[in-house]
Amino acid sequence: MEDVDLKMRIAVSTLFCLHKPLEEALTDILLSGSRLIELTDDGSHALNRPRVERLLELRSSYGLEYSLHAPFSSMNIAAPDEYLREAMLRRLETSIKWASALEAEALVFHPGSATAIEYFTPGVGWNLNINSVRRIIKFAGEYGVEAMMENCPEPYPFLMKSVESFNRFYEESGLDLKIVLDIAHAHLRGEIDGFIKLLGGRIGHIHVSDNNGQMDEHLEVGRGSIDWERVLPMIRDTNFKGWIVIESFKGVERSIRVLEGLF
């Protein structure tokens, strides 16, 4: 029974059609092979009221369920400039409101990044990141949204990429926050096992794509060097009940079939 439940929780991220305006991509979304859709509130798919209303119509007509990935392309919740950081947080809060309107399963956001200011004031970004996450969780809770933070990839200067950084975050912040475990990102650090074994109880959703261990390629599942036959049983053993979201840029339907075959 557990295998069936996991198959039914395989979702698709709209990253595969982000190159098209959302209105043009709606057909692609409906034909993606899943009724669980992680929308991307960024780029050509940035949400507004008419788009949210259309997405609600589609949800009703086709039995869709949504999660929402908050903006990430211009976002740094640990930016040392107060005015810039405030603008970014307000943008993220708008995304939380859209997630609430869509009755989204979760709101996914990225941790902050280190900047050149760290050279002069070491640790400032880390503290700002904790403060911003605290604000995000509080705001999301007020709107009935579960916010989850994703582990981010090398070689970018994100403050939270490793198992160690997440353990430190939990120890210092005391926050009860779910992780969106990006398997491909963890693979770049050789830490898939560490995340699953040490933080498995905190994993809310999982992002999957493939790569060859050098860069975040977002390949079709099975086209890189991740050993899915070993990784997926580890996930199952944690009693994971969340979404497994495919973030491949191409071959989404094939990725679904690969995952279903392995489960």
Itemize the secondary structure elements and their pairings.
Elements: H1 2-8, E1 10-13, H2 22-30, E2 36-40, H3 49-62, E3 65-69, H4 82-101, E4 107-109, H5 124-142, E5 147-150, H6 163-173, E6 178-182, H7 183-188, H8 192-199, E7 203-208, H9 228-237, E8 244-246, H10 252-262
Parallel strand pairs: 1-2, 1-8, 2-3, 3-4, 4-5, 5-6, 6-7, 7-8
Helix pairs in contact: 4-5
Helical stretch count? Answer: 10
In CATH terms, the superfamily is: Divalent-metal-dependent TIM barrel enzymes
What is the strand tally? 8
Looking across the biggest beta sheet, what order are the strands in?
1-2-3-4-5-6-7-8
Cα end-to-end separation: 11 Å
Say what the CATH topology is.
Answer: TIM Barrel
Helix content: 40-55%
Radius of gyration, taken over Cα atoms and rounded to an integer in Å: 18 Å
Assign the CATH architecture.
Alpha-Beta Barrel
Series of H and E elements: HEHEHEHEHEHEHHEHEH
Beta-strand content estimate: 5-15%
State the main characteristics.
TIM Barrel, globular, 10 helices, about 15% strand, 8 strands
Q: In a nutshell, what does this entry contain?
A:
The protein has 263 residues and is an alpha/beta fold. It has 10 helices and 8 strands.
Word description of this protein:
The protein has 263 residues and is of the alpha/beta class. It has one domain: TIM Barrel. Helices cover 44% and strands 13% of the residues. The chain has ten helices and eight strands. It has helices spanning 2-8, 22-30, 49-62, 82-101, 124-142, 163-173, 183-188, 192-199, 228-237, 252-262; strands at 10-13, 36-40, 65-69, 107-109, 147-150, 178-182, 203-208, 244-246. An eight-stranded parallel β-barrel has the order 1-2-3-4-5-6-7-8, surrounded by five helices. Strand 4 (107-109), helix 5 (124-142) and strand 5 (147-150) form a beta-alpha-beta unit. The longest helix is centred in the middle third of the chain and has 20 residues, at 82-101. The chain is globular.
